[in-house]
Amino acid sequence: MSETPTDRLAALGLFLPKAAAPVATYVAVARTGSLLVVSGQLPLSGGTLKATGKLGEDVTPELGRECAELCFLNVVAQLQAELGDLGRVKRIVRLGGFIACVPDFTQHATVMNGASDLAVAIFGDAGRHARSTIGVPSLPLDAPVEVEALVEIA
Question: The pTM is what?
């Protein structure tokens, strides 16, 4: 019997947070055919941001990486809420990462690896994905990181 994403989450000692409700005029997950687009998720835990501020100023790359992990965990929570069964995920096709940072910050990839590594840890080879990571001047609620996803489902 093969290990499921839910089994892997348990083995990692991770618990899915409650999927965050949209705070404006958008949906958390949009479905078209066998693709799901998960709106950008912030590093929220229990309704509170893990950190605020900018990478290279208030937030270290290590804390930024932890924020990216938490963002991806929130992506997974949205998938669970939409699908009811994470076993329906065929592939994490793409992750988009937004890093709030000072202009001379250059460790975007290191930060976003938190989300990418967790995607593979939870979904195995199906978690290997294409990715873009972009530095931005600010994010909602002064979050340091935001992660969105494109996911293929069965």
Answer: 0.97
